[in-house]
Amino acid sequence: MTPTEADAYSRSAAAYVHIPFCSSVCPYCDFAVVAGRDDLVGRYIDAVCTEITTSEPWRPLEAIYFGGGTPSHVDPSVLGGVLDALSLKHGFSADAEVSLEANPEDFDVARATTLRSLGFNRVSFGAQSFDSSVLVALGRRHQSGQIESSVRAARRAGFENVSLDLIYGTPGETANSWRDTLRRAIDLAPDHISCYALTVESGTPLGRAVRDGAEAPDPDTQADRYENANMVLSAAGYTRYEVSNWSYPQHECRYNLTVWAQGQYEAYGNGSHGYRDGIRFRNIRRIDAYVSAVESDKTPRSGNDVIEGWDAEIDRLFVGLRRVVGVAPGPGVTTFLQSDSGRRLVDADVVNLVAGRLTINRPLLTDEVHRCVLDLEAPQCFPT
Ligand code: SF4
Q: What DSSP element (H or E) covers 101?
């Protein structure tokens, strides 16, 4: 993907739909999810459709992403109802990417065929690992064989764009286990693979267990796993295009590319975040409060941040530096390079200038670069 192609996503129109329902809550999960609340599915989907139909009309959407939670946990027909509402409100471009997240234990040929016929054309499986002991440690309900059968079901149903999410660095995972997970993932020839380090979030069961003395993921081990993933995936023909994402050519996730290019995206559902007309907004996180707000004709928004002037330039660097292509020259890049922390990161070869674009050489240090970006102050000459 060239920088020009990546930057073009700043003009895309996208939408995110949050489906918060899960069979059970995994101990490491910090998302806005619920388990055992399937009684709420009907009211929740009605609320999401109401939120869509009462939102400002827009231009045809080029990327739609159903995340969660577990979109595949609910009946496909209700997801089709949401797609219909989106299509009626905004329209879809002729080649729109329509993604959903799915868990392997929910997926078979019948469900895949229905989802494909409703208009979904990309599926991203929460595979996480092919090692059964790691899956148990992560609290996942599927077995490795279900990942393989799910991918086959998706292909048989006509999904030409299949992605796998993997998690590395779970305590108890060995180097061999991780290598085997990568090999079995590659054997399935998904078009896209995401690899995330297991992170410990306070407030989750894992966070409490670690606080009480359970083994925490080891950062050095996770760094080794990441380097190994990059080497193995590159050798298998995948190209890394973002910190944690690799794909075959032309199979990058267009919804995420829009987010990282500072493009605009609507967001619907509890706990969702969007960016439109220079405003970053977020919805009420708790599902009951979200549904009640929409049912009583109140806004489901819980916050709006106007992103303009210098804040918009910092925002451009913050989201764009996740991409391998980095960010185009601009006042933020110039200020970064003139700052003490920026010079230190250049000297340490953590960041680099490639044809005038600021890029990160060492993706594992992205958080450190982000902290420096957030500390940058507007130059005096910057218009306010
Ligand atoms: S299935 Fe995914 S969204 Fe649901 S609890 Fe587990 S990690 Fe969270």
A: strand 92-102
- Centroid of ligand 1 to alpha carbon of 44 (angstroms): 18
What is the average pLDDT value for the chain, to the nearest integer?
96
Whether the CB-CB separation of 273 and 281 falls below 8 Å is answered with yes
Kindly give, in sequence order, each residue whose CB lies less than 8 Å from that of residue 344, ignoring residues fewer than 6 positions away: none
In this structure, the residues whose C-beta lies within 6 A of any atom of ligand 1 are 22, 25-26, 29, 31, 33, 68-70, 103, 126
CA distance 226 to 366: 13
Both 15 and 126 in one domain: the answer is yes
Question: Which of residues 237, 260, 283 is at a domain's end?
Answer: 260
Using the predicted structure, report yes or no on whether residue 195 has a pLDDT greater than 70: yes
How close is the Cα of 33 to the center of ligand 1, in Å? 7
Does the residue 210 lie in any domain?
yes
351 in the same domain as 250: no
Residue 310 covered by a domain: no
Residues 115 and 38 in one domain: yes
Residue 253 in any domain: the answer is yes
Domain finish residue from 238, 260, 282: 260
Is pLDDT above 80 for 383? no
Tokens 């967001």 label which residue? 267
358 shares a domain with 232: no
pLDDT in tens, 334-367: 999 999 999 999 999 999 998 899 999 999 999 9
Residues 125 and 225 in one domain: yes
Domain that holds residue 346: 326-375
Give 168 Cα–ligand 1 centroid separation in angstroms.
Answer: 16
Query: Of all atoms in ligand 1, which is nearest to the CA of residue 28?
Result: 7
* Ligand 1 atom at shortest distance from the alpha carbon of 126: 2
Q: How many domains does the chain have?
A: 2
Q: Do 351 and 202 fall into the same domain? A: no
For residue 291, being part of any structural domain is answered with no
Helix axes 366-375, 331-338, angle to 10 degrees: 100
Q: Which of 328, 282, 306, 311 is nearest to 373 (CA)?
A: 311
Counting from 1 in the atom list of ligand 1, the atom nearest the Cα of 29 is: 8
Nearest CA to ligand 1 atom 3: 69
N- to C-terminal Cα distance for the chain? 34
Residue 118: pLDDT over 80 = yes
Cα 69 to ligand 1 centroid, rounded to whole Å = 5
The tens digit of pLDDT for each residue in 71-96 reads 999 999 999 999 999 999 999 999 99
Pocket test for ligand 1, best of 19, 21, 26 (most atoms within 8 A of CB): 26
